[in-house]
Amino acid sequence: MEYVMLFAETPAERGRRETQDAPVYWGAWTAYMEALQAAGVMRGGAGLLPPEAGTTLRLRGAERLVQTGPFADSQEQLGGYVLLDVPNLDAALEWAARAPCAGAGAVEIRPILSAGG
After folding, report:
1. Residue 104 belongs to a domain with what CATH number?
2. What DSSP letter does each residue of 58-107 carry, written as one string?
């Protein structure tokens, strides 16, 4: 079964990317991604630039509302995602629990909509 894991990080966790703690931060993510690949359950994924780099579009009738930066008023922001192919939700939860951001942020797991709906 295919799932997407959405990694939500706090500003403090995201900030570690640019500090003297960066090698520890990136080392944890590298080890996690390598474990996913070695287990053969990772189908793809990527990290994302910070929320400030994003743009949100909303259509209200014929009007386009474009907002730069994060649209969610939340401490946790989407930091990346992984596409998984695992037997069931329990297996996806096991991988989510190992994500470096699970302790300070969150990992959302969603089944992927199949082509037939």
Report:
1. 3.30.70.1060
2. EEETTEEEEEES--S-SS-EEEEEEEEE-SSHHHHHHHHHTSTTTTTSEE
Specify the pTM: 0.83
Give the span between the Cα atoms of 45 and 49, in whole angstroms: 13
| Residue 37 burial (10 A CB sphere; 0-12, 13-18, 19+) | exposed
**Could you tell me how many residues make up the chain?**
117
Residue 24 sits in which domain range?
Answer: 2-48+75-111
Give the tens place of pLDDT for each residue, 24-46. Answer: 999 999 999 999 999 999 999 99
pLDDT of residue 104: 86
